[in-house]
Amino acid sequence: MRRTRVLIPALALTFAVVAAACGSSSDSGTTGPIAVASIASSTGSASAYGIAQQNGTVLAVTELADGSIDLSTYDDLSDPQAGTDAMKRALSEGATVVLGPTLSPVAAAADPFAQAVGVPVLGVTNATLDMAAIGNLIWRVSLSENAMVSASVNYAESKKSVKTATLIWEPSDGYSAGSAASFRAAAKANGITITSEQTYVDGSTSVDVVAGAALASSPDAVFFALRSAVADDFLVATASTKALRVGGNGFNSAAVVASSGAGADGLIVSGSWNINSPNAMSKRFVEAYTKANNVAPDSFAAQGYAAIQILLAAMKKAKTSSSADIQVALSKIGTVETVLGPFGYDAQNEPTYPAAVQIVQGGAFTLAS
């Protein structure tokens, strides 16, 4: 677990462009700066997500916070114990709000420590995290796996007439198990029959064998409830199938698409954001992120950026800069204009914006029509 203190200069010109949407510390109810801990997977199996997440957060603080946020970043190593250690350290160092950790199983281990001491957590990328099991201080920024998978499966049924499917998942992986449950529920809701389930066990089963078994019954679709580390192997292994391929959030990664090459073409996967969003704020974000990082952003970067937009909206409504008042303010933010679109929370701390249904074409995520 590594921690970095991020010193953020005020960028007055950029801040002026977006202040109307987000609010500045000068007209906020808080007195700053407030201590914010961003915990993400800078290394380990989820680094493809975590690095983008962290870069998005840092960019947002740089552009929008105007000195109102004192940001410290921590590496959770993509590991539950390291993530727990990072959370404990962040809390001991006075974090008022925590963003992250990146993976849902890591967050499930770490977030209870923040809940226990009354510090709100924004789950930037935690699609399968069972927030209710932890407590009322956990707020999701990404859409849940249920919301994203439901949007993808609904598209597959309504636009592509999918009636049967096979499901591939990995029982030993917490994300995969949660994603598989989402696919089962979405299939049932859309009248799709899952004719078989094939399980992958890292080190014990062959990708080609599992993929072949999934395709043996000639299903209309293959549902992938798998983590990103094996996503590209399965896309390549199923590249020649005529079945529609639908991935969970583990497939919503530019790195996965790039390493799969032409094998990713035709994949359907929903996300919290798409780079082709017509949202004017999103377009400015794409330009700024690309300039700052020499690479275009993905949805995890956008979620990291949006987390700061949401926090600034809460700070504007909070009576003080305490964790308790930020927690109350999060429930009162109403609708906030973010790079993800108009953002709000329901009574279960779930975001209410719609999923972006995407199809991979020519190595890029394109918005489905």
Give descriptors for this structure.
single chain, 369 residues, Rossmann fold, six-stranded mixed beta sheet, four-stranded parallel beta sheet
Overview of the structural elements:
The structure is a single chain. α6 crosses α7. The chain has a 6-stranded mixed β-sheet, with helices on both faces. It has 13 helices and 15 strands. Helix content is 43%, strand content 19%. With 369 residues, the chain is an alpha/beta fold. α7 links the parallel β7 and β8 (193-199). Mean pLDDT is 92; it is low at 7-28. The chain has helices spanning 12-22, 47-64, 80-92, 104-116, 131-134, 145-160, 174-189, 207-215, 228-237, 254-260, 280-293, 299-317, 323-330; strands spanning 2-5, 34-40, 69-75, 97-99, 121-123, 138-140, 164-169, 193-199, 221-225, 244-247, 268-271, 336-338, 341-343, 356-361, 364-367. It has 2 domains: 2-143 and 277-353, Rossmann fold (3-Layer(aba) Sandwich); 145-271, Response regulator (Rossmann fold, 3-Layer(aba) Sandwich), CATH 3.40.50.2300.
